[in-house]
Amino acid sequence: MEQPEQQRVDKFVSGLSLYLLSGGAAFGLEVLIYVDKGWQQGINWWLLKLPLTGIWLIAPYAALSAIILKRSNSLRQKVVLLFGSLGLTVFGITILFEGFFVHRDPRSWILYVMVPIYQWVAAGGAAALRYAIGKR
After folding, report:
1. Class of the CATH-defined domain 3-134
2. Predicted confidence (pLDDT) at residue 87 exceeds the cutoff of 90
């Protein structure tokens, strides 16, 4: 592959990863506001619960985005991060949608805690695989 085409493919893969991650983060915040009926809550909800829970929900997306943006990655590493981004986003959207819209349950709030934990594990796995590929 010639150099300008290589750069275009690199930018495309990185951009697609970042679009996926930002979409997953936005969906998580939208679910938080919609399910908790943020528009009906008082100022305490907007100043305390939304920022704290929101940061917890989007932290795995931000961490993987930082790895994509801050590190110089080869094309193989970017593809690994693309699949990591895809898995992180699909998992987060699917579980939150399933838990809050399909099977409504008063105990669904635990998803706010558990989904980011699993996403942290997946993001760590993607970062470790990226690192392992880079050592070759």
Report:
1. mainly alpha
2. yes
